[in-house]
Amino acid sequence: MKTAASDLDRLRESLGPLPEPAVEPPLVMVSGLPGTGKSYFCQRLLEKLDAVRVESDSLRKALFSPPAYTAEESARLFPAIHQLIDELLDRGVPVVYDATNLAEHHREYLYNIAHRRDARLILVWVKAPAEVVQERLQRRGAGAAGGDSSDAGWQVYERMRQSVEPMRRCHFVVDTSRDIGPVIDKIVREANRR
User: For the chain, which residues make up each domain, given as ranges?
Assistant: First the structure.
């Protein structure tokens, strides 16, 4: 049986090289439904922000091969991810967390970690029109969505859409069907603010 410590070790090893520590490291939490462009947004953001990307889809695959996307998997995965983020922020490492985070009670874990570690919490909600999402998810299903770790399709999107809870805290809203450059610049300025 796998232990929480071995799960954390496997996640830590999958990250690769880490950026330099910062005095007030930012935690950028990127949330949204599958196919809305979270991964694309994070890739673009990391071109301008020196941070480590903690992506739930790729980390799930680091723990489970192949993943079954069960509640039992998630019950192991997300506590390990939260522990990893807590550890990174404690070391001063800036983090971009890429996950759906659709429910406020799931986001609360990250709010608490950021508060405990005195990290600058930046919340981002990523969205796109449903017809754009459907087209993206069809391309993903056909294997034409390179660089995307997610396996979610349209049915998953439809099911998850029913469980979205609005963010209660101040956050950026990004429509990835439009030019995302200006909002990325705002987020980078906020992350680097002293």
Answer: 4-192
Q: What is the mean pLDDT of the chain?
A: 90
Closest by CA position to 61, among listed 150, 160, 154: 150
The token pair at 63 is 């723990």
Task: Give 72: exposed, middle or buried? Use CB within 10 Å, 0-12, 13-18, 19+.
Answer: exposed
pLDDT at 1: 46
Could you confirm whether domain 4-192 is CATH 3.40.50.2300?
no
Given a cut of 70, the residues of the chain with pLDDT beneath it are: 1-2, 140-154
Q: What is the pLDDT of residue 192?
A: 92
DSSP state of 99: S
pTM exceeds 0.85 for this model:
yes
Contact 96, 45 (CB under 8 A): yes
Handedness of CA 152, 158, 159, 162 (dihedral sign): positive
| CA angle at 33 for the pair 88 and 184, rounded to the nearest 5° | 60
